[in-house]
């Protein structure tokens, strides 16, 4: 007979890392160091014999316990990264191919940008075992933050859904129809009907389009560009931030103001004056031969080019710090550059009327640009 697993037992399983374990014996002393209070108000010393019996029953196969998705959501929101990591193991083990609830799916999206590498890695593994629509996009977002990490590469590849090839095929068909050597391909993925019930399994709709591959003027790279600090501010509570969406109005409004002022791009800040990104780019600041860039949870879009630049910078022996960046940090920087899939690496030589690096392209920016170009040639041969 199926029984719902109480949250206290869920905490116990997460604490000892026993989900999916084949070990016949577990030391209950591990509970002494586990931050159990984040999941339950029940004191550890009151767990008693019932918890042990339930756990032993599960190991012996005498009974099968269930955990509710409500409990999992609570565990996945815990402050301690060990709890979140363990809860993902529980999710993969207990839910299997059950459809994820809307709240649980939302928590997976949040954890795809978790500050803990361990949590993101465990999510990548769990997505391979869960029936979660759009998991391919989540895996791409996870990998974009750690492209150089071989463990993350393996975890993501192990979980790639079988329908991922459809995206590749869609791109190939569109390129053949476009009949051009160079094109800009855009993939738009939606979760189907706006009127679907929360319990329904969304069916992804994929639209692939191709347009002429318009390149930026050569002088953007040989002479550098001017950017402005946008007067608009973004809120951390905006649910679209950090995601590639079709909602471009605010960003295009910022970019239009920049263009009217004769600038190439607009730097966007939060309402507490932290740099996020450009209207259509990611931003890097160079100080004392270190690269500073806003962390993903600022929040910013975890750009593919951004991740590649971090990878090549570290290969060049440069320190990369993902940290909060203020306007003063930008104005006092040794160098500043922008990144994006179409623009690649663009040096910034002026912030409004203030010169950067004496209005010359800095050595670090030049090294990064060359290294990125080599990476593209290696991974995307013509």
From TrEMBL:
Pfam families: Aminotran_4. SUPFAM superfamilies: D-aminoacid aminotransferase-like PLP-dependent enzymes. Pathway: Amino-acid biosynthesis; L-leucine biosynthesis; L-leucine from 3-methyl-2-oxobutanoate: step 4/4; Amino-acid biosynthesis; L-isoleucine biosynthesis; L-isoleucine from 2-oxobutanoate: step 4/4; Amino-acid biosynthesis; L-valine biosynthesis; L-valine from pyruvate: step 4/4. Its cofactor is pyridoxal 5'-phosphate. Keywords: Pyridoxal phosphate. It comes from the Bacteria. It catalyses: L-isoleucine + 2-oxoglutarate = (S)-3-methyl-2-oxopentanoate + L-glutamate; L-leucine + 2-oxoglutarate = 4-methyl-2-oxopentanoate + L-glutamate; L-valine + 2-oxoglutarate = 3-methyl-2-oxobutanoate + L-glutamate. One of its GO terms (biological process) is carboxylic acid biosynthetic process. GO terms for molecular function: branched-chain-amino-acid transaminase activity. Its EC number is 2.6.1.42. PANTHER family: AMINO-ACID AMINOTRANSFERASE, AMINODEOXYCHORISMATE LYASE. Belongs to the class-IV pyridoxal-phosphate-dependent aminotransferase family. This is branched-chain-amino-acid transaminase. It comes from Desulfobacca acetoxidans. The lineage of its organism: Bacteria, Pseudomonadati, Thermodesulfobacteriota, Desulfobaccia, Desulfobaccales.
């Amino acid at each position: 007979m199926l029984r719902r697993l109480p949250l206290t037992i869920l905490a116990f399983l997460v604490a000892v890392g026993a989900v999916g374990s084949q070990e016949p014996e577990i030391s209950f002393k591990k509970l002494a160091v586990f931050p159990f209070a984040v999941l339950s108000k029940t004191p550890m010393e009151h767990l008693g014999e019932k918890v042990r019996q339930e756990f032993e029953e599960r190991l012996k196969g005498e009974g099968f316990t269930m955990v509710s998705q409500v409990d999992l959501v609570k565990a996945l929101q815990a402050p301690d990264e060990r709890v979140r990591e363990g809860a993902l193991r529980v999710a993969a083990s207990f839910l299997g191919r059950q459809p994820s609830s809307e709240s649980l799916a939302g928590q997976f999206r949040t954890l795809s940008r978790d500050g803990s590498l361990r949590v993101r890695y465990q999510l990548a593994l769990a997505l391979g075992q869960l029936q979660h629509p759009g998991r391919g996009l989540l895996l791409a977002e996870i990998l974009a933050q750690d492209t150089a990490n071989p463990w993350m590469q393996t975890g993501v590849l192990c979980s790639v859904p079988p329908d991922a090839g459809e995206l590749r095929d869609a791109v190939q068909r569109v390129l053949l129809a476009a009949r051009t050597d160079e094109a800009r391909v855009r993939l738009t993925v939606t979760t189907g009907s706006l009127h679907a019930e929360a319990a329904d399994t969304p069916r992804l709709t994929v639209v692939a389009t191709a347009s002429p591959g318009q390149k930026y003027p050569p002088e953007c790279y040989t002479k550098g560009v001017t950017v402005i600090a946008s007067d608009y501010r973004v809120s951390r509570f905006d649910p679209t931030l950090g995601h590639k969406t079709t909602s471009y109005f605010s960003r295009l409004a910022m970019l239009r103001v920049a263009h009217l002022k004769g600038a190439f791009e607009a730097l966007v800040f939060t309402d507490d004056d932290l740099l996020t990104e450009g209207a259509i780019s990611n931003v890097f600041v160079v100080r004392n031969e270190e690269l500073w860039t806003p962390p993903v949870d600022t929040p910013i879009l975890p750009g593919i080019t951004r991740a590649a630049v971090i990878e090549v910078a570290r290969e060049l022996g440069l320190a990369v710090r993902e940290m909060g960046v203020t306007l003063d940090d930008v104005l006092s920087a040794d160098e500043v550059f922008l990144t994006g899939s179409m623009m690649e690496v663009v040096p910034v030589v002026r912030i409004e009327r203030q010169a950067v690096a004496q209005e010359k392209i800095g050595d670090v920016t030049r090294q990064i640009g060359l290294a990125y170009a080599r990476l593209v040639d290696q991974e995307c041969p013509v």
